[in-house]
Amino acid sequence: MSTVEGESELSVYESMAARFDVAAQKLNLDPGLTNYLRTPNREIIVHIPVIMDSGKLEVFDGYRVQHSIARGPSKGGVRYSPTVTLDEIRGLAAEMTWKCAVVNIPFGGAKGGIVCDPQRLSQGELERITRRYTAEILDYIGPERDVPAPDMNTNEQTMAWIMDTYSMHVRHTVTASVTGKPVDLGGSLGRRQATGRGCMIATDQALKRFGRQREQTRVIIQGFGNVGSQAARLMYEAGYKIIGVSDINGGIFNTHGLDIPALLEFVKESKTVKGFPGGESIGNMEILEQETDVLLPAATESVITSKNAERIKARILTEGANSPTTPPADDILFERGVFVIPDILANAGGVTVSYFEWVQDRQGYFWPEGMVNERLKHLMVAAFHDVVRYGEQNNVNNRIAAYMLAIDRVAFSVKLRGIYA
Ligand code: NAD
């Protein structure tokens, strides 16, 4: 398990399982059904031989876990990182099942990963790793089976390679085999911004509950990759005051608000937020503990734990990253009255627009960006209110409410299909 401080609390899988167990118990699910829903449908391990630029042959480990196909094809990202483990992928695959159910889209959950260090690989090496990984899992993916998407350290280019490899094997172009593709290759307008936009839509709904205006609302964002930078840009444009951002190299902080367009320009050149002249420098973990109205972790897992949850001062926690908070930290945040928008709701904008991309590819008819954004807003707002209402009715926090709602929906589909009969 990796945390930013290197401490050990619960792994992504253990965190998912702990929350699942609480929610399943509250739903009073049959023990057999509980066990079925907790267990992945399929786990694939591949060992990928790749010729490196040096001419040397290396073997990389890759995983694809398909947690559920009860409500439709499984859906989920592929991440590249030296710390990827099967356990982490298993946890994230299950989270995808619950996330798709929370926003009520017709997918199950999956996740994939390759143990590699993308910083140390050339484009050619990355391409060969990606193509061989795709070939190894080819029988188990496809528009009707399992649809990969980008995640940490993978991007539109990675998806183009997967789509091309898949298409070469089936002998025709299948754009719906992956989502998060370049727009010129069947990608959807608005997909790149979708996760950050979804975080903003969810935060907007929380502000409405508290009667706050965007202009009075300070935001700190940890992580300045796809999710963090898009959330920063969109929230800045909408009137929020972004007072701190960080990336793996460090952070910058300015209580008067950061000039996000200038920061985006700076990052284009320097590849990091560190050293931006419009703010003071601050550490990755320290930034989480500053006075703010909204805290938006958008980097990596397990950054809010029992060790620092007491010191989180935000009123609203919008979880852009997957699994940024551990279950022991949940309890502390709940007692302290922090309004948590859990990851399976807050960052579901990405998979929602991935769903729109899959629909558009299958129709061969593409929507204008305004329509994508409007439909995203519609689903996110509905999901936000479903979760909050579910929590109020069942007297549980938003995290457990999101799990209960999702598990209830998946269990209902399973019962209707009769898999469980
Ligand atoms: P990314 O690789 O584009 O960016 C990650 C960012 O986090 C980078 O800026 C990196 O420097 C920073 N970072 C990494 N470790 C850090 C640390 N210890 N402290 C501060 N910053 C750190 O990844 P992404 O696609 O933006 O994904 C970020 C998170 O959001 C992940 O948890 C991912 O699973 C989740 N997520 C992404 C999407 C999506 O559509 N991209 C959708 C749902 C969830």
Features:
421 residues; alpha/beta; seven-stranded mixed sheet; 45% helix; binds nicotinamide-adenine-dinucleotide
Question: How is this structure best described in words?
Answer:
The chain has 421 residues and is of the alpha/beta class. Helices cover 45% and strands 17% of the residues. It has helices at residues 12-26, 31-38, 86-102, 123-137, 156-170, 191-210, 226-238, 260-270, 327-335, 343-346, 349-363, 369-394, 398-417; strands at residues 42-51, 57-66, 74-81, 108-115, 146-150, 218-222, 241-247, 250-253, 280-282, 294-297, 316-318, 339-341. The strands form two sheets. The protein has a seven-stranded mixed β-sheet. A five-stranded mixed β-sheet has the order 1-2-4-3-5. Helix 6 (191-210) crosses helix 12. The longest helix has 26 residues, at 369-394. The radius of gyration is 20 Å and the shape is globular. The chain starts with 11 loop residues before the first helix and ends with a helix. Mean pLDDT is 95; it is low at 1-7. The structure holds nicotinamide-adenine-dinucleotide. Nicotinamide-adenine-dinucleotide binds at residues 4, 150-153, 195, 222-228, 246-248, 284, 298-300, 320-322, 347, 350. Residues 4, 150-153, 195, 222-228, 246-248, 284, 298-300, 320-322, 347, 350 line the site of nicotinamide-adenine-dinucleotide (NAD).
